[in-house]
Records
---
Amino acid sequence: MPVYSHSKPNKDGEREGSKLLIDHLKGVRDKALANYSEHTSFSNRTNHKSLLENICWLHDLGKYTSYFQSYLLDSGKVEQRLKNHSSLGAHAAFNLLRKDPKDALFAYYLIKLHHSNLLNFDEVFWPEHYNSHKWLIQGTFKKQVENLQNTEELKIYISDFDKSVVKHTEPKTFFKLYKSEFQNVDSIEFYFIINYLFSLLIESDKLDASDTIPYQLTSLPANAVDDRPGIGKPNYPNSDLSTFSQNELRNFVRSEVVKNIERDDILQKRIFTLAAPTGIGKTLTALDFSLKLRQKIESKEGYLSQIIYGLPFINIIEQALSEYEKTLGEGKTLGHYQFADVFGKDKGEENSLDDTESDYSKKKMAWDTWQSDVVITSFVQLFETMIGNRNRLLKKFHHFADSIIILDEVQTLAIEKLPIIGAVLYSLSKYLNARIIIMTATQPKLFELMERELDVKIEEPDFKPFNLLERDGEVFSCFNRTKIIPLLNEQIDNERFIDLFESKWSFDKSCLIVVNKVNRSIEIFDLLKNHLCESDVELFYLSTNITPVERQRRVEEIKRSLPSKTCILVSTQVVEAGVDLDFDMGFRDLGPIDSIVQVAGRINRENSEARMGSPIYVIDFGDCQQIYGYATTTKSVAALNKTEIPENEYKNVVENYFASVSDAKLSDFEFSRGIFQAMKNLRYGYPKSSSEKEITVSDFKIIENSQNGNSVFIELPEDQKGIEARTAFQALINNEISRHEFDRKYKRAFHQRIIAVPDYLPNIKEVSSLTEDILWVEPDVAEFYYDEYTGFMRKEGEEKAIMF
């Protein structure tokens, strides 16, 4: 009698086996070994490969029971505990590999949890509930063993296997081995071994189960950036940098970075930094370097590297994706982020509707497992895969092996998380043979903080950060596009700001105004609207208070207007990074120095000779401490203790600022230390029923979710796509359409109309509910809740510090 791993309904609606279990096990084994890197630097690497193979063969051993087969084929009702299949394989693997206690424990742990999130290592061996359910657990195990069928076919692939290894081991045996092998280990290596093997197992399992064909990496043209129309090879005159135009400086930077490829020792380097001013073309420079490095790795070391590009914000992810596609063509770059289209931009909605649910599942699986030569993703996806316990994210973890990882705008990372992020990046390069490129206009102290706070020392010379732009100081000194002018003698209010604005601004100047709070941004916008109502000036507003789809439209509208019209934009921090706009002058509420420099990057961005030294005025509404904290406020004020700061001094000012706010007396790095200790102790996460509160790997988040925020779907009367998306969402909730159909046709449109609204606003209590977690501004009352210019209406109420 055949034994199956999966089933599907036939034309009569009855379930039938769709894949033989032995074929599934073989498929998982083949896929996992095909992705296993021979270049990792774990201890006993050969054993890990053999361990992986055994795990793949035994992970679904429990599916050989008649109970699971009955469940699969609907031939009878089966108790949940009897159809669960991970326990038999976990115990069998432990007994089979008992000669090596570490391997035996790894195998048990990985198979036991292959359908769930990772939990604390010790608790998996001796669960909290075991003693009270001992006889039930042992009885279930015995029944399952008695009902195993056809397992002799495994003997062909595992010579040491027979039914005698499928026996129950008591928790005290596991725990004794755990204490002797792992309890006093002061290394993070085991965390990376577990995550790597777990990732290989669960991704292969999911790909094979869905019949998704794994993507085979291909050679990419090393000169793709050089050959792109309008870009070309970097060419600049042999003269003093101070005489270069901005385009010549872009070419100089790219040439200086790329020439490092010719170094004899370049392949030995693992961590690279690229610090360069905003608007200097770091995106294409990093891509050019990565493509040439990738080709050299392929030529000299014989394997292909996946390029993984991480960015903090969706708007710059989409910009980068566009640039990569223009350079590499369609089909070579995958965008993996909240609003990404599974089908890719080359496929319109009309075509995608015809895809079968099965085809869609495969494409979604390929998308969600980074099946591409180049991946562009968010910091959330990237770092919460590196530091996390979630099954859904960890299936991508093994892609870091042999990869080239580009991190852009790293200054946006919270300073208290920098030590643990530095430690993980160093470990990826050390254990998984990853190459890391860290680029920013304002370089934070990732590795310095790692060494100081976590006592992790980079001893190997080739792992010390290598500066790709040796003359970065000269490049920074060439720029005089802007100057920061602090006006911090006293705090100002909204009305005084309007007076100040009027004294500094003239009608022929476009202007960017960035403040720290949404409420204040709306108040400033309304005052300016009244002040400029009779002029030809175009006034715009941007913040997270308006929907993402409207923010995108508005940025494009500002871009079209800026060259020929006088524009004023009032915004919050949402405009600080990656928004390609170019104003004549600006105002920035007091904040972190790197944020102020980022705003300066939206002023005279194209280095116009006529606008040299364009001013960005720093003012103080008194909101900085409430948003960023006392240390940031005092150190920012100290850094801005000059009458004006020209752009060629920004680099030094930022470096001094980061050095001061990184002081352990001012910043709390306890969180990084706690996560690091959890990783070393394999403390991944507690079961939901646990009352324990000790910090675990699962506590790591790149963005802390506000406890005071509400997700609100905004449905405007004339927005047909929004109406269709909301209707489809309700149909999904009512099981009238499938998740696949919703994701395929409506997901992007739905999420692009959701904003986060704080719950302290009085009118939020009046808004209807779409679900328990999502509120809904209905079209017939939208005018009472949502302003076409400034978004969700904020009636008077106490404003608390909250950032989204």
---
Amino acid sequence: MVLRRFLVVGLCLGIGANAALAQSPGPASYVINATAADESLVVDGHLDEAVWKRADVATGFLQFEPTEGPPSSQRTEVRVLYGNGSIYVGAVLFDDDPAGIERALGRRDEYNRADWFIASFDSYLDRRTAYMFGVNAAGVQYDAIRTSGGGGGPGGPAGDGIPGADPSWDAIWHSEVRLTPQGWTIEIRIPYSMLRFSDAESQTWGVHFLRRIPRLGELSEWPLVPRTDRANLVARFGELGGIDGVSPRRNLQLRPYTVGQIRTEEDADEPGALASDGNFDVGGDLKVGLGPNVTLDATINPDFGQVESDPAVLNLTAFETFFDERRPFFVEGIQIYQFSAGPGALLYTRRIGADAPIVGATKLSGRTAEGLSFGLLGATTGQNFEPDQHYGVARVSRQIGDFSSAGAIGTLFNAPSLGGNGRRTSVVGGADWDIRFLDNRYGIEGFASVSHRQGLQNGETETGVAGKVWLRRRPGAWKGFVGLDVFGDTFNPNDVGQLGFNNFVGLLNSIEHDVNGGQPFGPFLRASVETFTIQQISFSDGLNQGISSDLSSTWTLRGFQEIGLSIAAEHPFGGYDIFETRGLGPWKSPRGFEMGIEIQTDSRRSWLIEPEVGFLRNSDGGRAWSMGLRGEWNAGTRLSLSSSLDAEWEDGVTAWSSNETFARDEDGWLIGRDAVSPDDLDESAYVPIEDGGVLDNIFADVEPFAPGFWYRPVFGERDTRSVDLTVRSTVTFAPTLSLQLYSQLFFARGRYEDFKILRDEDRLADFSSFPKRDDFSFSSLQSNLVLRWEYRPGSALFLVWTHGRRADDVLNPLAPWGRSPYERGLGDQIGNTFDIFPTNVFVIKLDYTFLY
């Protein structure tokens, strides 16, 4: 029945895709020639040199938003020069209302609410990767690496960023803007050393220009890439020709740093007293161009003091929480190492340095003239600058034709064994492919991977496999995929990668549709609908894990408001959860139904509000609600504010509480003081309990863990409450000087009642006399304040203050019990949070870039 559904959906997807293909015209051809600069140019925002007058002009920009296709409401002219070791871009941006040009200051790489111009170059003409250089009307710079995807558009409200762009890449380049009575002008100089391109005598690059006018809600492009084709955005660029006699330049940068730090916290030996310590350190980063298209990056004793704190979260699942990488060395250029593995990835750089400070790390990356991209990453960590844990990654990817590719990856981890004797090693290898055909509109993508770990507990080894094959329909009003995922129960890449769960075989399909081809209709500027369905069975024994399906849609009104709707069904036909018991077998989880709505106000305004609500109902009566409110405000040209308030609560949700050991002797039943297996308990670790005469019946047909001992999961009806208030603010004094604040106040509390023991995968037995309690609360306040001054290109001074208060309150599982932490009110938690002894870290960091 389920397989038949997938086949029917896949057939419908193919029919819809063919229909869309027949109606989807190819993009128009856009070509501009660069002009050789035979004179010295001064980058001052005035395009008054004679060479600008005779250069080719790119004009005739077309709107992407609010209505796709019409000419831009404001004229734009762009010219490109080359020479003197650089590429130059000059843009004249006419405006009927020069006083309305928005000139909001912001930090570098902050795509804020302002008038923007962005030039993108596919300098390899590989139709996959482009370098982006943007400047807003206040002179703020934005640079990024853009991959082939682009999402639905080139950027939304302030702070949303640009889909498909990685702004962690930072080049050293120069720009100036000028306001004029007719609008504004931009002049940009990009040294060849900041780009990678071939050494051919005559070259053609891909090129794309974007202009944003926020007061009109307008985004215009040259060339216009239709919304239905944006999954292949870079492939649809125009062409920049006429580049003759240029050769790549070596990029050599040395960035040493010095850092001083003072840390204050509560004295561990004298509670309530202040303890402090300080240190001074040095380190550095090196970037070397080892040829026209090969770069070596190295770092010694890196410092990440200016990096924002990870947010506090309430995680009551069986799975690890993964956080975004923010450390500059690991985010810059990391796209070449990316290897998606279903719900995870084979490289998760947050593993590096998680257990000990990083001693040193290197990256070697490049691309050959034949289209082979490669990357090597190595890192070592250890306390007191003594290498102890080692990480290695090797990645290659070969371009096949204009759009297809295939590649491979290998990762290595070596560290002391978990038992303390010898070493443990983890090796993971994989191959991936993305083969596209029929003018890049269809593709077969997938991967195959093997993991091998040795030196685990008791010298054990473990080997596992995983893979996927998806058939995908890409551009067009109809998009989607059908696929098969397979993850073995012993596949584990998590020493270097990230994978939340394994042991499943999944049949998946997704369909996306741009209503009316992404064009306006009725009261809507555009609308899209997406469905996703997955049916899973366990890899190890074929147990049905259930089917999950969701339907979501986004509707943008002509007033630039946006409405998002979603509904989802979890296991509507039943299914088993093999992870909830934390290793003690499957559990037949309840069916669930979820729905949500999200609204966004007019994105043309200087402020934006996004409320959202969600509701979940389970078949066993459990319920959950969520509410959120997000806001952004550009308070003038120098101050931007954003905040979010999220609240979630659950009532009566059946969930795992603990795995407990029960013992039976001649006097009755006992329970282990700690929630561990009988192997980890001795005779003194048990206490007698009053079971109400039910445990004999509960365990009558349950296989014991050992004679006289039962080790079983205990479930309860869970109630939780959580509140998350996050505030961000940036004060920009100049494009190179800013003050940024991040602060999160987080509270959570919960309790379990009406306990039950899992007898077998289908039955939970009531055990109201369970002698333990599982009540908890958690409070956290953490803040970062960063003053950043880029006193010269590529060199910066950081002043950082990090402040944290954190406390856990967990009820003693066994009596005597005091007041339950769950019964504390929100006001109590807030007040008590500010009574927690704080930890403060003060950092001053100075780095300087030597550019050769």
---
Amino acid sequence: MTSAVAHSKTKQDGALRTLFSWSHDRIFTGFVFDGANLSRHFVVELVVDGRPLRSVHATDYVNMLAGDNIGDGCYGFCFSLDASTLSDADCVEARIANTGVRVGEPIAIRAAADCKSVAGPSSGVQWLGGVRFSGWISDGPDSLIDIEVDGEGIDRVRASGWCHVGDGDNARAVRSFSLHLPMRFADGAVHRLAAVDAAGAHLQGSPLPFIAFKDNLSRTQVESFSAHGDNVRARIFDRLVPMSIPFSAYDEWRMNLPEIATVAHPLKAAVIAVGPGDMDDTLPSLNSQTHQDWLALSLPDGQEEGLDAERVHEFLCTEAADAEAVVFVPSGAILVSSAVMRMADVLKRQPETVAVYGDLEVAGQDGSVWPMALPAFDYERMIEQGYCARVFALRRATAERALAARPFNLYRLFNSLFDEGMANATRIAHLPGALAILPQTDLGAASHALAAASQAHLQCREVEARVEAGQGVTFPVARVGRSAPRGSVSIVIPTRDKHVLLEACLDSLQPALRRRKCEIIILDNGSREADTLRYLESVDNVVAKVLRLEGDFNFARLNNAAARMAKGDFLCLLNNDVQALDEHWLEEMLGRLSEPDTGAVGALLLWPSGVVQHGGVVLGPNFAATHAFNDRMQGDAGYGDLLTVARECSAVTAACLLTRRRDYLDVGGMDEFRFPVNFNDVDYCLKLRAAGKRIVFTPHAALLHLESASRGADTRVDRKARFDRELRNLRAKWADALIDDAFYSPMLSLDPVPFSALAWPLRDMGPRVLRRPAPVHVPPGF
């Protein structure tokens, strides 16, 4: 809640204290609490000209109440009205739902429109762990926030990013900021951070107490944590409250990389430099390699990423006849001194490995260097981005077989390892930590080169697909459109009341359904509203089949029931608050599922504000699972261009998930008992991965998601116990997967915003290969 408002009304009725404020053009806020019973939390409904519009749970943090030691301070609420509703309104009021009791006093909109008071901005600040904080403020892109710690002025930050706040119709995009405090505050002592806007008002949540340890608690040498049991607790603390440092501190970060352990006699290497880059940039870095047993061949006259396979083969048969590892780099790349040694070392130590690639660095226009942290091998990202075909090494026998097919560029050389199937996917190693600074690249030419290579590879595999060059920001982009497989689709939509959401969802699906006939199954979970019951009756056996299931909301149970009765070969799990944005989303997702080893496909979901709601799921943050790219707007390329290309990830959200019905049933569907509401989609995807299936996220299928508009947030007080239990179940069953997400680099932080900062201290930087996640079979009752 803000400390300054344009128009507010307070009220006290016995022990009940309330406030209702109009603090922004379209924003109404307030609080309500019972002074005699601070454990109570109320549902508040917004009423415009006598007509109830919507309701929310009053559990927002209110700084003023917390400062007065009133409970936990979480008694606030916020509504956002669209401009057209507000312009026609005479009176807006808030009431406690189902009682008619007013919250504050009604606000006469037309009378208050002449008020010249300056409204304080809606805002918030939160601790992300360690010395990292983020916040938001809806006062425009030039908003400045002063940061103080223990009364000392530390920084002034500008809210220049974006984030999403609010639920359903209250949702909006606002300006956000992120900052890391100086490391001197990671001293193990309790500090307080204050975030103050230009008007001198604290942002919601400020001041914030925090505690941080420079090298994480488990690495801090304090006597009280010397016992084994205390070290276990310290490691748990580090997982829940991780440290991180900003990308801008990358130079400091890489200075702390551990010594690379290598074998005494690594393989002799042949280094092949390919492309139009300047070899004068590459040669000094080659000459400074710690591994000196190498020979080099330069092919600088080719096109972007071009390759003279015959010349390379001739070189391997003559000057480099005794080379056991073949290293490929783009001409103009500047190799780190240990690059050749590290790649040769992996091939020496791991005889089953056929190829190894490493992380990269990109140079800014001012000469600064930025890290590009990559995942373990990702087939989908390989054919759409070629990310692993930049700096890599092949075992000699592997290189000779690949070159025999006359690949015309490095992308085709690398993807030829999969011309005969996916067996090599677990035989490719990823080395965390940069191997080279990439040269400047003509991304347009590189995208066409990649598209040609991916098209040739898919033709070799006899996969019917069309590949087109795209436009990347950091990497080349090739969009792969596979032909959708034959088979019918069952779209499964759970719902309860609020028929307007369901109607909008069904209407938005019609363009896609004209392209492919689908069965729609609506799971009605105890609707009671008369309008909803009439609507369900009108669509039953006309637009969809309505299946009525009573009982408490159990998302897993509802989907399992639909899967058992569905007639389709494919199941599309869809929330009732999701709306399609075009007619191609289903065909795009089906095309990804045409690969027999793909188990589930997820879509790019956007909030109505335009902020990304789901860009794939990352495991690990908060020792749990979180959606990626909630800090990015629609159209943003994302870190490493990850919002422009399809890629694999550990899980996707079931708000829009496509899977084979056979696969769904084979792994037992969703777990109705351990994950009735939360994490059932994560658990399902991990079960598929454990069975050898891939999980693919595609940004080429984009839909709108109101997220929890129909049910409300699962962090509500009345639902928190259930959420915590399901989170404990996830941690117990999939702990190893949460600790090491194959598709999320150990270089990257585990705070709540993935792909936005560096991990500190370093996690395991050893070679990584794809492995199936292994669940822990937790006995009943634990």
---
Amino acid sequence: MGAKDVGDSQRSNADLALRSSPLIVWAGLALLDARTPVQRDYGVCIIGNHIVDVGSQSELQQRHPDAAMVGDADFCLLPGLINAHDHGRGLSGVALGVADDLLEVWLMSLGALPAIDPALLAQLEGVTLLRGGVTATAHSHNPSSWDRLPDECAPTIHGYRAAGIRVAFHPPYVDQNPLLYAGHDEFLAGLSAEVRSLAQAAMQLPALGLDDYFGLCTDLYTRFHDAVDHTIHIQISPAGGAWCSDALILAACDWATARNTRVQMHLLETRYQALYARRRWGKSFVRHLDEIGALGPWLTLAHMVWLDDGDIEMLRDRGVAIVHNPSSNLRLRSGIAPLPDLLRAGIALGVGLDGYALDDDQDYLRELRLAWTLANRPGATSPTVPAADILHLGAVGGASVTFGADVPLGRLAIGALADLVLLDWRSIEGVWMSPQASLLDVLLRRANRTHVRHVMVNGEWVVREGRATRIDEAALLTEVRAALQLAAAAQSESGGILAARTLAPHVRRFYAGWDAFSTS
């Protein structure tokens, strides 16, 4: 990886020697990937950061007699899970005074959250995800302010890597519509002078210029992008279709394709975003993006709740990937994405927590369970989505939409990178399980972050016995709490939350006027 700025890649000689020795990791149950049968008393042999062999425990011992052993008959072995879209806030917005609401209202308060060291937040987020079995995350950065974005990126990346988790990092950018998707003059005209000044402040675009943004992405790519071990990928993020001009979106696609990396963008998260496209172009957002040449296998779209007829086939034909975010879509009143239709079409799919899990705990296994439950819709003619399809999205699917289909993550196979999770199967199984019961059904219906015992990333144990190995969690929490206490006074003085609450009813009333506009 040369002289790239990756910090933790400088391993000691002792560590390299340890990694060069074979290690067998096995379990009573092993899921190599969601599309192959569950294996019993099975495992993998790891040398360095790659899986070099798979087989039954006895076969692996015979073939690698000098290998160390980690495992137990009461464990369940899984590939590392991949959180395909998130914002890495590390903290609960609800606990910080930002209540769940309509996305368009909620976003105003999000910008008023207290600003603390981004490296601390990334460490906290990284440890939280790792302890839930997530070995890689896609981070769409929410800067504490646009002018701080350049200074927050490298510390955030270092924070994730300090925790030991892989990260696909994409800084965002917007160049239009920061408060409303359209109708700015109409909106302002209906406000009192005092409220109008707050709205005008909220409508200010980033001071960071477009050239500076692309320069930032290029600098991060040069310093951090790891196309060998895939510990860090640098990507690009025009934040969302309604917030970004066609020129910005196309420039981002060109930037990514020139570097063999990806674009990740929010799209069609809410009904009002779909209505915006209809009002502006008289067609679906997906069709518009296709006509300008933005759709392709380089693109991952998050949310995609409000699709029009024909959109799914177009996305499939162009090779576009989608990330499903069920908890966030429910909490922010966006709706339920048509996951069964996307699965049936064969679109590349992953699942992301979006920093807004239903229980406010970043539990990825529970997020997969929610995705499964919502996918099996009412009605005798509705298709049944099996557990295997959802587990596939959490691993192989997530790897494809986050890092690219050629990156060897999400499965336990010879040649794959050594990312894996050991769960306490006996606790998941409970009192008794019938021989006729589906192991995958039981796993997906019951497993949660409390069942995670050991996690390996890139050949390194980053969680042992449910505790992070790289980070002193108690000390980290103490530091975060102290930083929040210092930020609390600044937050109250800034009036950011108060301004957002003042604007909220006006924004809600504005979009209520759009509800009569049909997307048909």
